[in-house]
Amino acid sequence: MANSFRLLMISAMYENGGNTTQRFLDGHPELFSYPFESQLGSKYVNDYLSSLFPLKYRWPVFPLDQSLEADYETIIDEECKVRIKTPQSSKFRDYTIDLNDAERKNLFVAWLGERPRCRGNVVEAFFRASAEAWKDYRRSGEEKAYVGYSPIVVVDADKIVKDLPGAHVLHVVRNPWSAYAETKKRAVPLSMAHYLAAWCLNQQSAILYRSLYPDRVHLIRFEDLIDNPRAVLGAVLARMGIRDSQTLAAPTWNGRPMHEVYPWGTIRHPNAEANRATANELSLEEKEEVRLRTEPLLDLLGYSDYPSPTNTLAR
User: Fold this and answer.
1) CATH number for the domain including 83?
2) What is the pLDDT of residues 59-118, one digit of tens each?
3) Would the pTM of this model clear 0.90, i.e. be above it?
4) Judging by DSSP bridges, how do beta strands 252-253 and 31-33 pair with one another?
5) For the chain, what is the domain count?
């Protein structure tokens, strides 16, 4: 039943620390953390946000008349499918994972075939099948909730909490200077106008849905996370009835320590020094434009004096 299914769905604008947050949660004994971005979206998503955000990052839409097998294939899940089906093409090819896609699909169909076909159950079947099919996952035997991460999915937080009564949404925000400087390192980066328009809308959505669903939608700052990950994430997990764990203090992959978070996103070292240094890679002109494009949200998010009052152009 969807009512008993517990999911913590991480959201974050690109380069805002969503992957890093997932890696901090990875080793918790009461959580099953999806190995990569759980890109649940489908090509059938079509609304006023479809031109701004990639469909793979949205909450999925499924045609009413298709089969359970087609439901599985409809979920984009690009990062995981590339890694397990064509590993030589994946940026995660050096990370071992024993997960067979055909077996996962069979488990998905078998679980869903015994229950009503609705979006909540389809998503639940996907996470349950992924966990069961992952043969070399380092299980504790105490797992009671699932962790997924899909960038920007907070824009669909109202759908998530309605489809899955046991789900929570955790949105992570990072200061826009570091975030934009990070996205400039992409092979094909978004323009500043495009990136910051999406950044602003993402944070506005998080603030709105946190107000509408204060017990289910949570908002944390990347800066606070990297300062004390165990305390910040522990507080969120406590609201889900998940206990504290020392594993929250450092990022891991399948429970194994990581020397750097990359290639899960562009952030390599989640610490305050690296975060501020990244912001300071921008020119003074870029910093001022970032401020102008995001200014209405800076006070609300505690970023009015970031990177620093003396490191911007005169107003």
Assistant:
1) 3.40.50.300
2) 999 999 999 999 999 999 999 999 999 999 999 999 999 999 999 999 999 999 999 999
3) yes
4) unpaired
5) 1
